[in-house]
Amino acid sequence: MRRDYFELDVSNVDWVADGGKPKQPTVVIEFTGDTDALRDRLTDTTGAVLEATETDAAFRLTDAADDTDAAGVVSVTNRVTGDFILELNVAADDVTQFVRAARRYGESDAARDADGRYRVEIRVDGTELVVHEKATFLVYSSDGDLLRGRSLIPSGVEL
């Protein structure tokens, strides 16, 4: 599937800069390609939709991390097979803002009732296919090195 079949929208991140009440950051990924192909990638061998624990989300920079207009690729992968479910191009600043909000949300009292630090919704034509709450989001340099300080890694997680 082509990266330009996907659009990403992030919400509930402005409260960090505004000093507002913590809200769980949400990532909505809208898909405009072949729905059957995406559904196939989002299910296991029995046809059941993959659980949040069966997927991983990450961002790999395609530019130097310090470039003011750095960009990269957000990916969601199947944790069991390692196969890519989807990839899309995004600006690094958007990811940095998102990770900062998810980290702060995880430190707040509001997070106690949530299953994760952020929410991911994958949609086709506005209809939700998958909704997951996740706690980990890994960020890698353009050389493939894990950038721990830029990643969202819950305490107690060994990588």
What report would you give on this structure?
The protein has 159 residues and is of the alpha/beta class. The chain contains three helices and eight strands, in the order E-H-E-H-E-E-E-H-E-E-E. It is globular, with a radius of gyration of 15 Å.
Spell out the key features of this protein.
single chain; 159 residues; alpha/beta; four-stranded mixed sheet; 3 helices; globular
Quickly describe the structure.
The chain has three helices and eight strands, in the order βαβαβββαβββ. It is an alpha/beta fold.
Shape: globular
What is the percentage of strand-forming residues?
Answer: 25-35%
Strand order of the largest sheet: 1-2-6-7
Oligomer: single chain
Distance between the termini: 29 Å
Number of helices: 3
Would you list the SSEs in sequence order as H and E?
A: EHEHEEEHEEE
Q: Helical proportion?
A: 10-25%
Decide which structural class fits the backbone.
Answer: alpha/beta
Rg from C-alpha positions?
Answer: 15 Å
Main beta sheet strand tally, sense and closure: 4 strands, mixed
Unreliable parts: none
SSE order and pairing:
Blueprint: E1 6-11, H1 14-18, E2 26-31, H2 35-41, E3 55-61, E4 71-78, E5 84-91, H3 92-107, E6 118-124, E7 127-134, E8 138-140
Parallel strand pairs: 2-6, 3-8
Antiparallel strand pairs: 1-2, 3-4, 4-5, 6-7
